[in-house]
Amino acid sequence: ENIFDRSRMTPKTPIKNEPIDLSKQKGCTPERNPITPVKIIDKPQPDPWTPTANLKMLVSAASPDMRDREKKKELFRPIENSEQSDTPDSLQYDIVDDSTVEEFEKQRPSRKQKSLGLLCQKFLARYPNYPLSTEKTTISLDEVASILGVERRRIYDIVNVLESLHLVSRVAKNQYCWHGRHNLSQTLKKLQEAGEMQYGELMTFQHKEQDLEYKFGEQKKETVPDSQDRPLLDFSEPDCTSASANSRKDKSLRIMSQKFVMLFLVSKTKIVTLDIAAKILIEETQDTVDHSKFKTKVRRLYDIANVLTSLDLIKKVHVTEERGRKPAFKWIGPVEFSGKTGELRGHSPSSDPLPETQREACARYQICATGKQRLTRHASFNGAQPCEGIRRKVSSEPNSPRRERQDEYCSKMINLAAVCRQKIEEDTRNSNITSPFSLFPVPGDSDFCVNPLPQAVFPVVQAEVPSLSLPIDISSQAPHPSTPAASKTEDGKPALVPNQPFLCFPSSSVFVLCGGLQESNLSETQPTAGDKGTRSAEAQAAVPPALCQKRGSHKCTLPSSPGDHEEPAAKKLNMEQSDLPLSLVVPKKPFESPKAESTPGSSCPPAVHLETYCLDLASPAAPEARSKESTKPLDCQEQEKLFQNKDPDEPPPGNEYIPKENANQPFHPQYLYVQPTAGLSSFNFLFSANQAPSAISLASNQLPSLSVPCVMVPSAALASFPLVCSPSFSSPLSPVPDGSFSAAASMNFSMSSLASTTPVFISTTAVVTPKVSPAPSVEPQQPAHPALHLSPVLTRSCSAVKLDSPMCVGHPVTLLKLQQPSSAPLTPKSIRPAHHEAFFKTPGSLGDPVAWKKNEGNQTRNASSVQRRLEISGTSAD
DNA sequence: CACTCCCGCCAATTA
DNA sequence: TAATTGGCGGGAGTG
């Protein structure tokens, strides 16, 4: 009998008949133990007894195919009856029993019987959904293939998808480890977070496929190449063995699977049409969109969908659209994930940088979004750990192509930002906005939450236009219009709470910090991250985002980029970009609950301040940036020079940071002046602080008063500071109200000289580089969305999103764009964004749109600076 | 005819 | 070099 079985096992494709059994190891599943032939006996044996069984035997003996069919039938029966709907588990049992049946449907296995979905069910039936932790079940591909009577190729399809969800992990060649669904929720959560970052915006618009598509296209193009995405998926989980395995290039199926799942998790409707998914995935992967590619993608999606369906995570549905009904899938799996950011951290803090980043972002986001501020979380976040994680990432790969990292980074950042946005939105929706945002105009919050995000995402893209708007805000700013870049700069807007994440984006790791910034804690982490990034990245980093310092005073440094900009302003710009968002965010938080560690209290204005500070800080870093800047356009270079000079001064913002990098007190004074001008109290504080104290001390001082978080960002943009700060502060503060706030903020920015800020952002963007160019493209789209309401927030979110897509590089740009657009539409709110843009532009300002482009380069610089700052902050950290 | 998606060639990776 | 993985797309089964 045993022999018999074996023969059966071997499918027609004799490929490998080998003694399959051997492989099985531990625990197989309940049903059979593959390993020993004996197992085989299980089912088969019974057969012999029955007439049918005998028949089967004969048949199988006669032809492998028949055997297979029979097997399938057995397995399926239950399944077939219920169709997929049945739960796999039940199936399993059934299967076992069925042996008796044999109705002889044998007829040729219909295509359905051979479907991947069915095969997958059979596969899953073999393993427990929740295996005991103690027992590790290993899966031998050969064995399974033979048992299931299919070629190995098919098993790969299943395993790859399962692997993407961490239900299994590859242990070795031909060996996989079965984990079951224990970690499924965590994995889904991660994917959701990542997805939000990447697709959040898109999904919001889901209904509008076009939008999405467009956006996607732009974003992706802009941003980085898809490689970015992978990381998300990768998350290395703690699981058992796996870790090692991922090397392959892409494993598109795995990545696709993750992305596909992300789309569901991000989608509000939880329904994703195949064509949209295909388009999105194609874009990510590659630009080319030829039809054939699309078809191929769809084929793959079907493969994935079949497996996911078997997992009961999705089900097929049809959506009717204008053009008719389209095939689609609806997510029927868990939507809420118990895991919390905190938990996530716990998972593998060190293991994957990205994951951590995401987590942090999430955490921050939550905080922000919620408005509730979870001090604890923040605190934890603030904790060096997060930062470390980021740093690790950065540092770890320093050598490797920065871009890639950056991209990843960016993507992560973006993702985070996106997630945050979404969350925020949700939060706002669900529970009106929380205090944090309150800063923003009230409406903003709510709007912000709801509309903004969605729109923001894309709309933001429009940023370009927004940039214009910005100018509007402040005529003076107009100059900046430099334009596109400006829009990007808007990222600054991100300042809005939602954006925080964005902040991160800029420098990548740094940004993450931003989130923290807002909260306060963030700052610390960010800095660290930033530091790493900057260091490794040198120029790119230069601008490190901000770091934030956290807590109480939060100071983040946002690094402006290292010098890129000619003038301080330029620096500021860079910083700002990244910062802006932060600042925005910060403000909100402050408003909401000062109490929080950081005492976010300060509200918008504070945020601004922060930025300023950051800028200052950045300046120190600037020098480094300079080098990179060289690459930048003329403007940049000039700016760089300026920065250099300033650098020394810049330190202020990040108190701690500064010291490390450079103590640039001198400059501070300048800034200080500016701020005062602004008139806002908060600004003033900041400035004074900056001035008086050494860079660091100052920063800290100021921050504290304000709300710190923001500060962090600013550091980078010190230069811009003055301008920005003052404006923002003044108005923002009082305005606290939502709309006003944003407006004010924006105003401020613009006032301050958007240019300066803008430059910063730009630089950031630039850093992103590749993305930069893309960003522009994006911008156009954004306009459509107009995120009038929350523009700031939205913008940020948007930017963040975009960033994601771009991954590292791109995202910054994207963000900017988004912001602008949003800003434009929104009035007050929009203003802010605009301001950001303006800033960016301004620096360049001077006018050149070109400058914006250059910004890209700057961004990189910024990033580096940011990183530096981060580092500093880290060290100095509160 | 449009959807699905099976099948297996064959290239990229690994061992 | 052989084996393992897995991208890919032709084209067949279904409705």
TrEMBL record:
Residues 1-49, 63-91, 219-247, 472-493, 523-544, 643-662, 842-878 are annotated as: Disordered. It is found in: Nucleus. The keyword Repressor applies. The keyword Cell cycle applies. InterPro entries: E2F, E2F_WHTH_DNA-bd_dom, WH-like_DNA-bd_sf, WH_DNA-bd_sf. Residues 65-77, 219-232 have a biased composition (Basic and acidic residues). Keywords: Activator, Cell cycle, DNA-binding, Nucleus, Repressor, Transcription, Transcription regulation. One of its GO terms (molecular function) is RNA polymerase II cis-regulatory region sequence-specific DNA binding. Pfam families: WHD_E2F_TDP. Residues 81-90, 474-486, 857-878 have a biased composition (Polar residues). It comes from the Eukaryota. One of its GO terms (cellular component) is RNA polymerase II transcription regulator complex. GO terms for biological process: negative regulation of DNA-templated transcription; positive regulation of macromolecule metabolic process; positive regulation of nucleobase-containing compound metabolic process; sprouting angiogenesis. Residues 111-180, 248-333 form the E2F/DP family winged-helix DNA-binding domain. SUPFAM superfamilies: Winged helix' DNA-binding domain. Belongs to the E2F/DP family. This is Transcription factor E2F7. The lineage of its organism: Eukaryota, Metazoa, Chordata, Craniata, Vertebrata. The gene is E2f7.
